Amino acid sequence: MGFKREWLEEWFLRVLSPGYGYVVENSGGKATRSGWLTASLLAQHLGLTGGQPQYLAIRPNKTTNWLVLDVDQHRSPHHPDRAEGSLEPLLQRCRLMGLNRPLQIRSSFRGGIHL
Fold this sequence. Notes:
alpha+beta
């Protein structure tokens, strides 16, 4: 049994189904762009085309099956560095909404996380 290879940018577009428009960093500030995010543009922003990864913010389409929580290391009482179990109240609320398999990733070089 074989699996069809799926490129990261194609998976991202299929799973997250971003809505119309997105935000990029431009000269140190944030700039809104109109249009649909394409696989080639996404690959560029993810650093998959040989360049460095770039800031990219997306929003969900009209309906979505995902949610992102930004947990700042220095400002959020729920950051895991605060205390053991400090993230659990957020995880519990996610489970109440049917989000049972959260993915925790680093959101910045300053210690924040995205859940």
